[in-house]
Design brief:
- The chain is α+β, with helices and mostly antiparallel strands.
- It has helices at 13-24, 28-33, 40-56, 117-132, 145-150, and strands at 3-7, 60-67, 73-82, 100-108, 136-141, 154-162, 171-179.
- It is built from 5 helices and 7 strands, in the order βαααβββαβαββ.
- Helix 1 crosses helix 3 (40-56).
Length: 188
């Protein structure tokens, strides 16, 4: 099944949000945070966040994989690419960097998984980062971890989350990963 990678637009957001919840639905953290399933309010808030990011944040890049036979969006990625150093006041949480490329979301509709779309979406962002001499970061779920490893990401730190603290059961693991800059020369 041939597919094409291209930039996504606000008009794609309904499908993107549907894919997001379908892809993350089986994940332990998502099941804990939404034990009764995704509500209309959850869906609307996710769409609103994505819309605001597309409209207001020039560092955000949504990409989509499109099935060339059906013209349906198979999956998407959401990247932040900071090309310039930023003041510490603009950093999120405990960031220890001023610039770089963060993969914030990679989601493939379950009916399209294991066909290469997710890997192609990751490679798109890595190529953009390489053009600018930037490293890439991701906080990987165990589901996505093999894709990131295959694209050259290396482990930085494992995060173990006790889901019992949030009303769930068991532990969930994510891995902070980095893919070093490939060009070795920052172009910004």
């Amino acid at each position: 099944m041939p597919f094409q990678i291209s930039e996504a637009a606000e008009a794609d957001l309904d499908r993107i949000v549907d894919i997001q919840f379908a892809a993350f639905g089986p994940e332990p953290l998502q099941r804990t945070l939404t034990p009764n399933g995704i509500t209309t309010d959850d869906w609307n808030k996710a769409r609103e966040r994505h819309s605001k990011a597309i409209i207001e944040d020039p560092t955000v890049h949504f990409t989509k994989a499109i099935d060339m036979e059906t013209n349906e969006i198979m999956g998407f990625s959401k990247w932040h690419i900071w090309e310039h150093e930023r003041p510490e006041s603009e950093w999120n949480r405990d960031e220890q960097r001023e610039w770089g490329s963060d993969l914030l979301a990679l989601c493939t509709d379950p009916k399209y998984q294991h066909r290469g779309a997710g890997t192609a979406l990751v490679k798109w962002g890595c190529e953009k980062a390489d053009e600018k001499g930037l490293p890439c970061y991701v906080e990987a779920s165990m589901t996505g971890y093999p894709i990131y490893r295959s694209c050259g990401f290396e482990d930085l730190e494992r995060l173990e989350l006790d889901l019992g603290l949030y009303g769930g059961k068991g532990m969930d693991c994510h891995v902070c990963m980095i893919r070093p800059a490939k060009s070795g020369v920052r172009t910004v």
